[in-house]
Amino acid sequence: MTAVYLTFIFVLAIFLGFELISKVPSTLHTPLMSGSNAISGITLIGALASMQTSHHGVTVLLGTLAVILATINVVGGYLVTDRMLAMFKKKDQGGAQ
Amino acid sequence: MSSVGINFVYVVSAALFIFGLKMLSSPATARRGNMISALGMLIAVVVTLLSQGMDYRWILIGVLIGSAIGATGASMVKMTSMPEMVALFNGFGGISSLLLAWSEYHQHPEMATGIAIIATISVFIGGVTFTGSMVAFSKLSGRISQKAIVFNGQHLINAAILAVVVLSGALFCLIPGSTSGYLLFILIVLVALGFGITSTIPIGGADMPVVISLLNSYSGLAACAAGFVVSNNILIVAGALVGASGIILTKIMCKAMNRSLANVLFSGFGTTTAKGSSEDGPQGEVKPASAEDVYYILEAADTVAFVPGYGLAVAQAQHVVKELGDLLEENGSEVVYAIHPVAGRMPGHMNVLLAEANVPYDQLVEMDEINPRMETIDVCVVIGANDVVNPAAAFEESSPIYGMPIIETFRAKTVIVLKRSMNTGFAGIENALFYRENTRMFFGDAKASIQALVSEFKGSN
Questions:
Q1: Does the beta carbon of A18 lie under 8 angstroms from any beta carbon of chain B?
Q2: Which residues of B are part of the catalytic machinery?
Q3: Which range of residues forms the domain containing residue A48?
Q4: Distances (CA, A) of B134 to A86, B89, B90, B137, B147
Q5: Contacts of B222 in chain A (CB under 8 A)
Q6: How many beta-carbon pairs under 8 angstroms link A with B?
Q7: What is the tens place of the pLDDT at every residue in B395-432?
Q8: The pLDDT of residue B276 is above 50
Q9: Exposure string for A26-50, b = 16+ CB within 10 A, e = fewer
Q10: A33 lies in a domain?
Q11: In Å, how far is B350's CA from the nearest CA of chain A?
Q12: Position B35 in a domain
């Protein structure tokens, strides 16, 4: 049953993703990419959950590496997206002049 | 915290991701949207850490190292280098999905067949995303040749690799618990890493926007697959959103280049279009113009549209273009920047570069917005763009770029093309635009040429 339920969520999320993303103007496609990239660092959650005190050796090594790499993806992705979006200004916000 | 409680909080995180992406639909709300999405991620991380029996020591070390590297990279990167930065981060996301699936397998080698299949998929997509992104990163940053590297039997080798993956994957799913099962798993990891390289290396530098979009999609799908392996909702939802986003961007990029995805992936560009140049070449005479001539044309214009291409970014001319734009506005002209979807090295790259030069986003106009009103534009200034303004795409059925959507500058009253020489563009085909009655060629380095125009304007005031 779990498999059916997870697949259900997956399919709905894909449709929702298509709806959401097709509304993003091409002006913002680069920030969209780096921002969605940061979201794909969500594996961090899985990696964190796998870090149990009962584990040793290889599992700890794999888990720690996964945490490091996913954190780079998440932190770097969100920060760089914020840096880019901060530059998008409307004209009366001092964009011109 | 109980696992039910944690899963409820994940629903909140998922909702925040969705809100965040929704707010990206306008530049006015986009920044807040990104923060909301980041808040969703923070909540998910914190609540995960509240579950029982966590090994905080290694988590702390991992999070600190990762945050330091991520924050440094994000604050140092130049806007022109954004594509390689995104490729790099993307690769890290992919490999962490691979490691997560591996770690899960290492803990529970006696996997059910269904889970074993998904673990194989997760490892394969994660591995391909990692090495594929690294190749894209190396190509974009010039560490390896930007050219498409093609060799005989390439497709055969890739097909053989895929066959190995499917076979060893099938075997692995039957005997995941045994020693040979573990060896097969390692084989799948290695082959996935290899396939990322062999499948990305034949793709040329100018096709990178498609590749990055596609890899972006893979990294989402890898997270998704990892989510199935560890039965985690939030990984599946977030991964699916990213997967969908990457697929849409890939489609847009392919459409803007008038090529199918298969064509981008399997044929080194240039090989298919070398036959390009039309037999008799464009008719007419090239009319060169001096800075002074161009100044008089611009001075009298009511509406001016700049059409920037990647050449503008290469010449680092964004800031001086913006200065010229301001002077034109002071002079009473309406100024817009018309941007082709594939201008730059990743989707939307040119918009970021212009935003960095303080061009307000209401002046950044998409191709579909500018083309219908092209007749009303007095002057189009084409800077460092070539194929995306080539009328052959609209008229010459024999042209390799026929059918590609272009910014139809030729319909404007006057077109000024800034160009170093009469050399052909990336696709290696002549541009009839340069020979048209209403076109003036302003030869020279883009930055120096615009600088000269700025001085003309300042001198006259």
A1: yes
A2: 387
A3: 2-88
A4: 28, 10, 9, 5, 16
A5: 40, 43
A6: 378
A7: 888 877 888 899 999 999 999 999 887 776 666 678 88
A8: no
A9: bbbbbbbbbbbbbbbbbbbbbbbbb
A10: yes
A11: 8
A12: no
